[in-house]
Amino acid sequence: MTDPEPIRRIGLENVVVADTELSHIDGEKPELLYRGVDAQELAEKSSYEETAYLLWNGGFPTRDELDSFRGELDDRRSLSHGVAEIVEHAPEDAVPMDVLRSAVSATSVYGDGDGTTRDRSLSVLAKAPTALAAFGRARDGYEAVEPREDLDTAANFLYMLNGEEPDERHAEILDTALLLHADHGLNASTFTGRVIASTESDVVSAVTGAIGALKGPLHGGANQDVMEMLLDIEDSQKDVSSYLAGMLEDGERVPGFGHRVYEAFDPRAEVFKKIAKEVSEKTDGPDWFSMLEEVEAFLREEKRIHEKGISPNVDLYSGTVYYSLGVPVDFFVPMFAIGRSVGWTAQAQEQYDDNRLVRPRAEYVGERGVEYVPIDERE
Ligand SMILES: CC(C)(COP(=O)(O)OP(=O)(O)OC[C@H]1O[C@@H](n2cnc3c(N)ncnc32)[C@H](O)[C@@H]1OP(=O)(O)O)[C@@H](O)C(=O)NCCC(=O)NCCS
Question: Taking a C-beta distance cutoff of 8 angstroms, is the pair 273, 320 a contact?
Answer without folding.
Answer: no
